[in-house]
């Protein structure tokens, strides 16, 4: 099992390029099931989660041609699709459940295992199933699988509310949208997720021939094709990963370095930029780059954040922000409104000397001038990133175990930090 060994008190500076968005490419790959023609993709990141999704699609009968060095791939699903996504593959990540909608829309039947992924609390899929039932599907649960079957005449458009007590559901929006593009008639999704990754998926679907309006707003309207062979092939470039960009920007702020992230979309990071401003971190901005500026000896200001659906502060940057606030002068409050149990990193940050206490969905962070290296355990993808950042700021050496979590969503993160001047190496234990 791989371990990161990180030398602390790091000084970093320079530029780092941002790769394609994990949370965008995975549903786009699932959308390839909606056609038997090739889907050509650019800016495909080399991530473990991408390999998992490609494994699932190959199991379903898709042919994949991939050039990892050029971040390109071509994927073409078979004329006849195997409609079962097995537990052995789906258990590895939650996004794999999003083959359910495309399979149901294209074949009229889908048998998909309940999903796995990061372990930071219960994340039910009931809103996914509610949306498919509203389209006319017969849905049942059997032996750890969801089995969905379209009625004899096919799926029918409907008006569907996808909101939840914690805000809009990104996964349900994508799953239901992909089923609806091949349904009969008009579907209106109310309470839809507004994330940039939803817009990116929509743009790809439109290139494939789907008729969708309103993506990026809470109301999405879909004019279903009513024909399982209606969509065709397309070429699409995946948007840059705003969470990866945010992670490197937080690293620059934490280590007081001049760090530029290139190839990003600054507009996707407005809430993070606002939090930086409140924390006393200056940014320069270009059309496709953001650069953290050194503070010139000024301390980090304690800054409260509350995670919210887009365009609010991203839950996927909550752990990294907490690592930053461990070094602020004063007390910060971090409130998690999306996944209330997403605090697996808290105990590991305490091992590095952080001062944090949890009160329900809130973490109170008391800044400290020093952290110290220790052996820590990565528990999920974004917690792993937070531990890397904290380790770089700590004195001494830190070992981070179970780094396979970070490989799910960050491409060669240790090499890219080394390119900024950090000392971090991967070892097999």
Biggest sheet, in brief? 4 strands, mixed
- DSSP helix fraction: 25-40%
Mean pLDDT: 94
What number of structural domains do the residues give? 2
Low-confidence stretches: 117-122
In total, the number of strands is 26
Give the number of helices.
14
| Gap between N and C termini | 5 Å
What is the structural class? alpha+beta
Oligomer: single chain
Radius of gyration from the CA trace? Answer: 22 Å
Order of strands in the sheet with most strands: 24-25-1-26
How much strand content do the residues show? 25-35%
How would you name the CATH homologous superfamily of the largest domain? Enolpyruvate transferase domain
CATH architectural grouping of the largest domain:
Alpha-beta prism
Write the layout of secondary structure elements.
Layout: E1 2-7, E2 14-17, H1 22-31, E3 39-42, H2 48-59, E4 63-67, E5 72-76, E6 84-85, H3 87-90, H4 100-107, E7 109-113, H5 126-134, E8 138-142, E9 145-149, E10 159-161, E11 163-164, E12 167-168, H6 170-180, E13 184-190, H7 196-207, E14 211-213, E15 219-225, E16 234-237, H8 242-254, E17 259-262, H9 270-279, E18 283-285, E19 289-292, E20 305-306, H10 318-325, E21 331-335, H11 344-351, E22 355-359, E23 362-366, E24 375-377, H12 381-393, E25 397-401, H13 404-407, H14 413-419, E26 424-428
Parallel strand pairs: 2-17, 3-16, 6-7, 10-13, 20-21, 24-25
Antiparallel strand pairs: 1-25, 1-26, 3-5, 4-5, 7-9, 8-9, 11-12, 13-15, 14-15, 17-19, 18-19, 21-23, 22-23
């Amino acid at each position: 099992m791989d371990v990161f060994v990180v030398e602390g008190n790091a000084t970093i500076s320079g530029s780092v390029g941002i790769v394609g968005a994990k949370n965008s490419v995975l549903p786009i790959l699932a959308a390839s099931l909606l056609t038997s023609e090739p889907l050509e993709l650019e800016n495909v990141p080399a991530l473990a989660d991408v390999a998992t999704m490609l494994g699932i699609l190959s199991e379903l009968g898709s042919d994949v041609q991939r050039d990892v060095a050029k971040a390109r791939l071509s994927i073409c699903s078979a004329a006849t699709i195997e409609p079962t996504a097995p537990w052995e593959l789906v258990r590895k990540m939650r996004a794999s459940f999003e083959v359910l909608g495309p399979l149901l829309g294209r074949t009229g039947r889908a048998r998909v295992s309940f999903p796995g992924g990061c372990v930071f609390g219960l994340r039910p899929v009931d809103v996914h199933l509610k949306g498919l039932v509203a389209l006319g599907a017969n849905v049942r649960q059997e032996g750890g699988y969801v089995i969905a079957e379209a009625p004899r005449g096919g799926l029918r458009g409907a008006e569907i509310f996808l909101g939840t007590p914690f805000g809009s559901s990104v996964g349900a929006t994508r799953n239901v949208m992909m089923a609806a593009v091949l349904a009969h008639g008009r579907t209106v999704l109310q309470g839809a997720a507004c994330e940039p990754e939803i817009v990116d998926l929509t743009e790809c679907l439109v290139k494939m021939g789907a008729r969708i309006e309103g993506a990026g707003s809470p109301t999405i309207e879909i004019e279903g094709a009513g024909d399982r062979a209606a969509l065709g092939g397309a070429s699409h470039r995946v948007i840059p990963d705003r969470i990866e960009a945010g992670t490197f920007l937080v690293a620059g702020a934490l280590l007081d370095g001049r760090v530029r992230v290139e190839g990003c979309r600054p507009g996707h990071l407005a809430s993070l930029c606002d939090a930086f401003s409140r924390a006393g971190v200056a940014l320069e901005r270009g059309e496709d780059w953001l650069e953290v500026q050194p503070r010139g000896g000024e301390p980090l200001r304690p800054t409260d954040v509350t995670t919210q659906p887009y365009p609010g502060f991203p839950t996927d940057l909550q752990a990294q922000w907490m690592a930053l606030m461990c070094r602020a002068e004063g007390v910060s409050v971090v409130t998690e409104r999306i996944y209330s149990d997403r605090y697996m990193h808290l105990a590991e940050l305490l091992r590095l000397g952080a001062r944090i206490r949890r009160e329900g969905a809130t973490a109170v962070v008391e800044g400290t001038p020093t952290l110290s290296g220790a052996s820590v355990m990565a528990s999920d993808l974004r917690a792993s990133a937070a531990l890397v950042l904290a380790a770089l700021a700590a004195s001494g050496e830190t070992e981070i175990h179970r780094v396979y979590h970070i490989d799910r969503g960050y491409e060669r993160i240790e090499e890219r930090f080394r390119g900024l001047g950090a000392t971090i190496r991967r070892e097999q234990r």
